[in-house]
Amino acid sequence: MKHALLEKIRAELRSRLERLSKAAFEAHAAATDPGSKAEGKYDTRNLEASYLAAGQARQVDELAEAVRIFESLTLPDFAVGELIDAGALVEVDLHGEVTYFLLVPTCGGIEIEHEGSELTLLTPESGLYQKILGMSAGESLDRPVLRVRKVS
């Protein structure tokens, strides 16, 4: 099951990278277009376009690195009763709804559909990642109100 989940994530990241690369290319073209030259001292179109192009190029680099990480990522299986650790798929009851979290090294916050529910990628930078790390099935948190149902 985790293999199929990883493939979904990889496909989503590749799709995002393709869209972002296209946008970055278009921003670069706009920044270097002769028609975007300043027509006066208060015309900042060219400067704004170059900032946008630089920012998008940086995002493309970061996402390309994330794709590379996920291409080689393997997720361990967790036995019943095992504590939550990196690579865990965690099923929780969050405010009365079943929600899934996958503890991964990058791309925190991305949401993927999983078994008819929302799955959110959590990274070590996330406060929730830190809170559920080391918990096991049956344990609960007060903030946010959640109960760990399953770790796999």
List the helices and strands and how they pair.
Blueprint (H helix, E strand, L loop, with lengths): L1 H31 L12 H28 L16 E6 L2 E7 L7 E4 L2 E6 L4 H6 L7 E2 L4 E6 L1
Parallel strand pairs: 2-4
Antiparallel strand pairs: 1-2, 1-6, 3-4, 5-6
Helix pairs in contact: 1-2
Short description:
Helices cover 43% and strands 20% of the residues. The chain is an alpha+beta fold and 152 residues long.
Q: What does this protein structure show overall?
A:
The chain is α+β, with helices and mostly antiparallel strands and about 150 residues long. The protein has 2 domains: about 1-70; about 90-150, no CATH class. About 45% of the residues lie in helices and about 20% in strands. It has 3 helices and 6 strands, in the order H-H-E-E-E-E-H-E-E. Strands 3-4-2-1-6-5 form a 6-stranded mixed sheet. Helix 1 (about 1-30) packs antiparallel against helix 2 (about 45-70). The protein is elongated and about 65 Å long. About 15% of the residues are buried.
> What characterizes the major β-sheet?
6 strands, mixed
Strand order of the largest sheet: 3-4-2-1-6-5
**Percent of sequence in beta strands:** 15-25%
Number of helices: 3
Class by alpha and beta content: alpha+beta
Outline, from the CA principal axes? elongated
Gyration radius, in Å: 20 Å
Q: Kindly give the count of domains.
A: 2
List SSEs in N-to-C order: HHEEEEHEE
Helix content: 40-55%
Mean pLDDT: 90
Spans of at least 5 consecutive residues with low confidence: none
N→C terminal distance: 10 Å
Number of strands: 6
